[in-house]
Design brief:
alpha+beta, elongated, 4-stranded antiparallel sheet
Length: 283
């Protein structure tokens, strides 16, 4: 028996990725079997429909721009967007696409990367957040502080930061252990978050050290008022099991541009001011 090639559609149906062929206006002319597995629609439900109607509304503008580039003859590789599954949830897709002018069609091969995108978002979150409290970490704080400095330099608006070190936290660890200490740190983070504006940023930068970014803060006096409010939020006892713990915080303030014009200088100034305040409280 002389072997013969099977119909191309039968071959494409074996692919784990979705294969789509659309006309110049985006109407679906062909989909393979994996299209249903990824998007939930049977071929007869979507053929003749515009593929853009399946794109997540937030990604339609970017998808249209990519399609225009494909139509100029540029091969698009690894473009990502989101589609709405037939059941209503969104799926992340990574596409390769090419325009074939001699046939008047655009071919796209899409791979679902929903789980990959979830893992990427998780890694991105971990890279910029403290794992214990969920607050921003030092890296994110530096990034946001730099952006706030640049904005203030352009607009003339102020920027201030507070450096807070907990007073009395060692007693928590000594009497309650590290689990109690972790619980207190989480509650401290929550109280600090509740005491700032939406545009302010609270970060944990050390064991019991926190910093607060105050964009638009006009001077040290206004920053001190925020520091006093945050200390007042920490004043109520922290209840753990059958024990109560009282905490306070020593605070240091740095303002742009009076105390520095870059993140390192401002953080160092606020850190020194905090330790000065702590020594005075201990004397």
């Amino acid at each position: 028996m002389i072997p013969t090639l099977p119909p191309l559609a039968d071959v494409l149906d074996l692919m784990p990725d979705a294969v789509c062929v659309v006309d110049v206006e985006g109407h679906l002319l062909f989909v393979n079997a994996s299209f249903q597995r990824i998007f939930g629609y049977r071929p007869e439900e979507v053929l003749g429909q515009r593929i853009f109607d399946l794109v997540h509304p937030d990604d339609r503008a970017a998808t249209a721009a990519q399609a225009e580039q494909v139509m100029t003859g540029k091969l698009q590789l690894h473009f990502r967007n989101r589609y709405l599954h037939k059941s209503g949830h969104s799926v992340d897709i990574q596409w390769s696409a090419r325009w074939l002018p001699e046939h008047g069609v655009r071919i796209g091969v899409g791979r679902e990367v929903t789980e990959l995108r979830r893992l990427e978002r998780e890694l991105e979150y971990r890279a910029y957040h403290d794992s214990l409290t969920g607050l921003a970490n030092r890296d994110r704080f530096r990034h946001e502080l730099q952006a706030a400095i640049e904005h203030a330099a352009r607009t003339g608006h102020g920027v201030a930061l507070l450096y807070l070190d907990l007073d009395g936290f060692k007693v928590v660890n000594d009497r309650g252990g590290h689990e109690a200490g972790d619980q207190v740190l989480r509650e401290v983070a929550q109280r600090l978050q509740q005491g700032v504006r939406q545009d302010d940023l609270v970060a944990r930068v050390g064991g019991d050290e926190f910093v607060v970014l105050l964009p638009g803060c006009r001077d040290a006096k206004a920053a001190q008022a925020v520091a006093d409010q945050l200390r007042a939020r920490l004043a109520p006892p922290f209840a753990l099991a059958d024990d109560l713990f009282l905490l306070d915080a020593s605070t240091g303030i740095a303002c742009f541009p009076a105390d520095g014009t870059d993140p390192e200088t401002l953080l160092a100034h606020a850190d020194r001011a905090m330790y000065t305040a702590k020594r005075l409280r201990m004397d």
